[in-house]
Design goal:
Low-confidence stretches: none
CATH class: Alpha Beta
Strand order of the largest sheet: 1-2-3-6-7
Order of helices and strands: HHEEEEEEEH
Number of helices: 3
Distance between the termini: 27 Å
Mean pLDDT: 92
Oligomer: single chain
CATH topology: Peptide Deformylase
Number of strands: 7
Number of domains: 1
CATH architecture: Alpha-Beta Complex
Length: 149
């Protein structure tokens, strides 16, 4: 189940900074599997962060559609580079259903992370994928997209 915020309320899990995943265990792989299934079952979702399912871990998954580069799982992600200028597009969030706002985000980002096997990777993303990565990393820091407005 995806944690959602009702208008005018807050959620301690969604607002907390998530801790790192110390190692990729079977428990973490099971969480990843559940998150992928939850994301696939959502109507409009293209990404899902662990805090959105009640786990304050630095982990997110993206839809297979968005993972054309092959990376669908990001464990302990760190954005190492962002581009300027930013691009304004409409953005939404599974934790804020039916809330869409225009928001400026970097057009390109570089992220370092681990996959579900614990292997490190570096990914340069642009366009919607860069926006998605920025959005999900924000979740790991307890930041919602509406906080940028």
């Amino acid at each position: 189940m995806i944690l959602q915020i009702e208008k005018g309320k807050t959620n301690k899990i969604l607002r907390a900074k998530s801790g790192p995943v110390p190692e990729v265990t079977d428990e973490v792989r099971n969480l990843i599997k559940e998150m992928k299934e939850t994301l696939a079952a959502s109507e409009n979702g293209i990404g899902l962060a662990a805090p959105q399912v009640g786990k304050n871990l630095r982990l997110f998954v993206i839809s297979e559609e968005m993972a054309k580069a092959g990376q669908a799982v990001f464990i302990n992600p760190v954005i190492t580079q962002i581009s300027r200028p930013e691009k304004v597009l409409e953005e939404g969030c599974l934790s804020l259903p039916e809330t869409w706002r225009e928001l400026a985000r970097p057009e390109k980002v570089t992220v370092k992370a681990m996959d579900e096997n614990g292997d490190k990777f570096k990914l340069r993303a642009k366009g919607l994928l860069a926006r998605l990565i920025s959005h999900e990393v924000d979740h790991l820091d307890g930041v919602l997209f509406v906080d940028h407005l």
